[in-house]
Amino acid sequence: MDGVESVPALLVSIGAPRLQRLGIVVPPPFASPERRLYALLQQTEGDGTHARYNALIRRLVSYERAAECAKIADRGRIHPFMRALGAETNEDTRIYFSGGATAVLFGWRDSTIDVDIKIVPDRDHLLRAIPSIKENLRINVELASPLDFIPVPDGWEGRSPFIGQERRAFFHHFDLYAQALAKIERGHSQDLDDVQEMLRRGLIDRAKGLEYFAAVEPYLYCYPSLDHQALHAAVNDALGRS
């Protein structure tokens, strides 16, 4: 942290007690990190401060839980997870991966902290089964998708690449352009590296990515925590250069 009061540094300070118990070495924490993080976010997030703060805390908790499991999600855990969900599925169901799981399955990352999924339609029996599957496989699973963070045009299901089928469960990568846009919005270095990797692999196209953003930009008002100008600049920076 080098004494710099940044969002990542304050998050580490908030998680320091639990991280230290897990054997993770962290720098000396800041005093009152929760209050200081909220105040720092207010400088850029405005009315969206509360939502952004909660989202960051959820990510911290997710990391801590994954660390407690002492296992990370690689192909050797994601594929058994798919089979386990398939075994619980008694109706045709589509399950969409995003984030780190997509990166692992495409092969540019070896592992991810958690597996983000969206189940369509919602299946109560699957939601009830996930906690025991997580425990058995020692894998962290989050019910999350780009829809939680950015507007996504209708028809995203048809733009979501097929991965495979396990019984009556059909697995897809969530619309890759939506994933790229959500990563740009987050702005973390790993997320931005993921976007560049998606471009290098031909999974997304720069021109189409800019067209995609132009189509959703009028609906950014539905997500009050988004900084429209900052996101516009970030998208042009990530997709408008070669």
Counted by DSSP, the helix tally is 10
Q: Quickly give the structural class.
A: alpha/beta
> Which radius of gyration do the C-alpha atoms yield?
19 Å
Q: What separation lies between the terminal Cα atoms?
A: 32 Å
Helix content: 40-55%
Mean of pLDDT: 90
| Sheet with most strands | 5 strands, mixed
Instruction: Strand order, main sheet: write it out.
Output: 3-2-1-5-4
What is the string of SSEs from the N terminus onward? HHHHEHEHEEEHHHH
Number of strands: 5
Segments where pLDDT lies below 50 for 5+ residues?
A: none
* Domain count: 2
Q: Name the shape in a single word.
A: globular
Strand content: 5-15%
Notes on the protein architecture:
The protein has 242 residues and is α/β, with parallel strands linked by helices. The protein folds into two domains: 7-69, no CATH class; 72-242, no CATH class. Helix content is 54%, strand content 10%. The protein contains ten helices and five strands; from the N terminus they run H-H-H-H-E-H-E-H-E-E-E-H-H-H-H. The chain has helices at residues 7-21, 33-45, 49-69, 75-88, 100-106, 124-137, 176-186, 189-200, 206-216, 228-239; strands at residues 93-98, 115-120, 141-143, 162-166, 169-173. The chain has a five-stranded mixed sheet with strand order 3-2-1-5-4. Helix 1 (7-21) runs parallel beside helix 3 and helix 4 (75-88) runs antiparallel to helix 6 (124-137). The chain starts with 6 loop residues before the first helix and ends with a helix. The mean pLDDT is 90.
